[in-house]
Design goal:
The chain is an alpha+beta fold and about 160 residues long. The protein has one domain. The protein has 4 helices and 8 strands.
Length: about 160
């Protein structure tokens, strides 16, 4: 008996059922909530790490309509929403760009943020004049939308005091 005979004996699925099964498997395999985003975890001094831990507890479950989906490896120093659309890192080093008097900035929700445009990606913002630096990277969907910063500002204001 050849393998082609064995294939003929298997019950055939109707085309519509097979197509539906393929679509279902593809959807399950590509779910945005299953996407694993990986980021470098900062290593701030202990007093800054404590501020970041407090911030982590205050962060919202949704930002810009996207559910919380923290990146790997899990840490109180990082958080994320959506499929990597919004990624927060707390306790990052002071960006060199912050010394540039021409650096652009925005104010959102009472927190000042320095803007860095990234080639081929969305903007990155770093809080200024706070006891530790909080970085928020946005993907290209938010190239002209700072609303995620406003959604995060309350937690930053509550847990990361202004620097003196």
């Amino acid at each position: 008996m050849t393998s082609s005979h064995r294939l003929r004996r298997l019950p055939a699925l109707p085309f519509a059922t097979a197509a539906a099964a393929a679509v279902l498997l593809a959807a399950v395999g590509c779910s945005p909530t299953d996407a694993e985003v990986s980021v470098a975890v900062p290593s701030p001094p202990p007093e800054e790490a404590a501020l970041c831990g407090a911030l982590h507890e205050e962060l919202p479950e949704t930002v810009a309509g996207l559910g919380r989906n923290d990146p790997e490896p899990g840490s109180d120093l990082t958080a994320g929403w959506g499929d990597g659309a919004i990624v927060l890192r707390c306790g990052v080093p002071r960006p060199a760009r912050m010394s540039d008097p021409r650096a652009e900035g925005v104010e959102a929700g009472g927190v000042n943020w320095m803007l860095e445009q990234r080639e081929g990606d969305g903007p990155r913002f770093t809080s200024t004049a706070r006891e530790t630096y909080v970085e928020v990277s946005l993907d290209e969907r938010f190239a002209h939308d700072a609303s995620p910063l406003a959604a995060l500002a309350g937690a930053v204001k509550k847990t990361v005091p202004p620097s003196v």
